[in-house]
Amino acid sequence: MENIQSWYNIVPDLAKYLEPLPPPKGGEEVLKVLVPECLKQEMSREPEIEIPKELQQIYAMIGRPRPLVEAKKLQAALKTPARLFYKTEFYSPTGSHKLNTALAQAFYAKQAGIKRLVTETGAGQWGTAVAYAAKIFGLEAAVYWVRAAHDRKPERRKFMEELGAVVYASPSTNTGCGQTLLHDNPNHQGSLGIAISEGLEDAISRKDTAYLPSSESTVYVLGSVLNHVLLHQTIIGLEARQQFEELRLWPDIVISCLGGGSNFGGIALPFMKEVLAGGKKIRFIASQTQAAPSLIKGKYRYDYADHAGLTPKLKMYTLGHKAKLAPSLAEGLRYASAAPIISLLRNHGLIEAVSPDESFVFCCAKLFYDTEGPLPPPVVLPQVANIGEYNPRRHGFPAVESIYSIATAIEEALECKATGEKKIILFNISGHGFLDEGVYQEAFTKYRIGY
Ligand SMILES: Cc1ncc(COP(=O)(O)O)c(C=O)c1O
Questions:
Q1: Which of 64, 188, 261, 332 has its CA 20 to 30 A from that of 97?
Q2: 248, 392 in Cβ contact below 8 A?
Q3: Pocket of ligand 1, candidates 87, 90, 91, 96: which has the most ligand atoms within 8 Å of its Cβ, to mutate?
Q4: What is the pTM of this model?
């Protein structure tokens, strides 16, 4: 297949076929600490944005285009007439799709003379992607990592540090927001919304901003939710579309897990283009943790994207920016709101949402592992992550977030078995679980799944 040379920007198509994307409100301070080129892309009305040549080469280096695989053994085990295809975002040196936008944001930051990237992370995948991208472009990186996941994944912390990043468990004593929360509860487990607030406070409190490049200049890079992040991730769906065209097939259903919406948007939006234009019919299904079913139980309204209310207000499905979310083993899906682009499409009835039971999800992880898996090791192992021998039993599962995609694809395949329909189902495996071992052990013990 040909390399993808431009990302797809759905924003003008939303305006053409549905309604204009509601603009953000306020939060000017935050806009000053984003990468200037990304801010331009955030507001862009161009239908396509060219991927810089240097970045195209780096995408090739990290394994793009990524294979589309038919899950034949899983189909056989399920005895379904449906055909299941998955996109392999786990073929990533850091373990997930997050690198697609981390590299783009770091590339533009470097071009603008910026020296330091600050960010949040939930599952740890985004933090690792930023650490890796910073290393590639010779930048510094600081990561505020939700404590609940941080404490379960010491090897992933080590991975980020070996790439040169400074990592803070969030809430941390490094920011006013963190200090207040720790004062009220010294064992606070954190949340993505809190980690975003801490990262933003860090970036805003620096004297120099993105517009004043100097040895100190810092920007905030976000791993989901914003338009430019979904834009960079469209490379997933653009590749998948080409791969389906080569197979002379077209999906009936497109599925992915959804936290803030970046990998879901990445795989879905290039297919949504055809649906909006009225040419094709596809069901799009977002799979969410029951701890944060923003698209199911949230309200479509303006809200902040972080706990402290530092960001602009965005129109999105939200459970409330200060909502106390139940714990979830899929920390990367435990976020109160869904991206404005995804929310608008959901509000027009173009996206369905489900939140499968956690025990069912882990049973599906085991079934996938026993049929299609174990996944091959990411290329950096074990030299960088320094986790010793690659043991497929310990490290061969998909990322915990990604198994929500698998579980929902299995549910749909079983539905086809009941109805006899030969649907074509595409799902995204957004990441590798090679550093999620602690979470799997906890889940398999909790749900008495032998492995
Ligand atoms: C592997 C993986 N998949 C999915 C997600 C959810 O994020 P998003 O909805 O932005 O794709 C995360 C978030 O950390 C993740 O690490």
A1: 188
A2: no
A3: 96
A4: 0.96
